[in-house]
Amino acid sequence: MTIDWHTLPKDKADHKLNFRKQGEQIWLEVYAAEHAFPYSERTIHRVEINNLEPDSNYEFKVGEFTRVYSFRTMPTKNDRPIRFAAGGDTSHGEMFKKMNRAVMPYDPDFIVWGGDLAYANGDKENVGLWHQWFDGIKRDLITAEGRVVPIVLGIGNHDVINHHYPASETNINKGIGMPAFISKVKRGEMEEPTDEMRLAKAPFFYPLFAFPGQPGYGVLDFGDYLSLLILDSSHSNLISGTQTDWLKKQLANRTDIPHVIPVYHKPAYPSGRVEPGGKRIQFWSEEVLDNWIPLFEQYGVRVTFENDDHTYKRSLPLRNNAVHPNGIVYLGDGSWGVEKKKPKTPEEVWYLSKSAEENSAIITTLHGPHQHFLMINENGKIIDEYPETLKIVP
User: Fold this and answer.
1) How far apart are CA 365 and CA 15, in angstroms?
2) Max alpha carbon distance in the chain (Å)?
3) Which of 158-162, 190-194, 213-217, 325-329 has the lowest mean pLDDT?
4) Same domain? 352 vs 325
5) Peptide bond into 105 cis (omega under 30)
6) Residue ranges of the Purple acid phosphatase N-terminal domain (predicted)?
7) For residue 104, what is the domain's CATH number?
């Protein structure tokens, strides 16, 4: 478990974290590394605690602060239901608070968000939005008893300067230099970014979060039952090239994992930024479709989490860009805490099974080989379910 805490200059500098398994008497000590919160007076303290027992509760205290918090580790086997919440496009305001509070009654093991977090756009002038975002997490995602819900994060266009690597989304959408840009990408002639280039592109994202860290994408394995593939849909990396090569290796090494779930920002099958009939408007959706989707299909992915469009969507099962009974279902589309938008309907776009103008979180339950997804809005109302449970009417 990685634990971060932030301090201000007025706080007493203390790098110590005490922890113990719940029910035990002796507190153990670990000491944090520290680094600056970008463009802020805050300092980030970070520890990684290893050799914890699975499926157990631990208490901890940070620095000189007296409040006792706790966290829950994951089991090594999927012999109990695993439940987590998924979504994206969180923002930092009132809807963020409502959605956070709506998921907490489900007691999630963790939350995964696929990018567009504080909407600070990599701008140092927007550092206060990150403060609000973290304040919201501390306010809403800690239970009354002090259990802190862990968070897994990916990167989105509003987490970086100019939305995309290496081009500005504004210029691309206006068609400025688009043919030359596409040609270079397709020919593999675009420069692969370095760690320094990625950090310059996303000056908050990389220092603020331990995972995925550099190079901006990574895989998180839970025992032998779940692998989350956190991907960068061209925000501080190219979609094609090195990242796709890495993705193929990770998928090939996990063919015996029953739940392999990719999480990324730009959707291959968008519900908003798509023309009636199903033609994709954004270049990056085509890049995801061309580079990643064939690999997902080849290696047996069943569900992916997509974001970005500020709507709710569930696709039909898709394979080879057509409806197929054994295809992949694409869930999204990034409407956790942002202003919701009106999506295209299944009547307008062939690959949609359901869409709605709703803020949404995906409550995911995994048990053995089974997957279940319950979609709720900010009021806790169920807006969709996949697969649908049998309802018996007397």
Assistant:
1) 37
2) 66
3) 190-194
4) yes
5) no
6) 1-73
7) 3.60.21.10
Count helices and strands in the chain by DSSP H and E runs:
9, 22
> Are 365 and 236 in the same domain?
yes
22, 37 in Cβ contact below 8 A?
A: no
CATH number at residue 10: 2.60.40.380
238-280: pLDDT as tens digits: 999 999 999 999 999 999 999 999 999 999 999 999 999 999 9
Q: pLDDT (tens digit, 9 = 90+) per residue, 172-230?
A: 555 545 666 677 777 777 788 999 999 999 999 999 999 999 999 999 999 999 999 99
Q: Yes or no: say if 333 and 343 are a contact pair by the CB < 8 Å rule.
A: yes
| DSSP secondary structure of 324-356 | -TT-BEEEE---SSSPP-PPPPTTTSTTEEEEE
Q: Which amino acid is at 379?
A: N
Angle 55-61-63 from CA coordinates, rounded to 5°: 145
pTM of the model: 0.94
Quick one: 125 and 266 in the same domain? yes
Residue 245 burial by Cβ neighbours in a 10 Å radius (0-12, 13-18, 19+): exposed
Give the list of residues 6+ apart from residue 360 with CB closer than 8 angstroms, or none.
87, 312, 335, 336, 375, 376, 377, 383
Q: How many domains does the structure of the chain reveal?
A: 2
> How much helix, strand and coil, in percent to the nearest 5, is found in the chain?
20, 30, 50
Strand blocks (E) in 211-279:
218-222, 226-230, 259-263
pLDDT grade for 34, boundaries at 50, 70 and 90: very high
**Judging by DSSP bridges, how do beta strands 382-386 and 312-315 pair with one another?**
unpaired
pLDDT (0 to 100) of residue 26: 97
In a domain, 219, yes or no: yes
User: Given pLDDT bands bounded at 50, 70 and 90, which one contains residue 166?
Assistant: confident
Q: Please report which helix (H) or strand (E) contains residue 157, including its range.
A: none
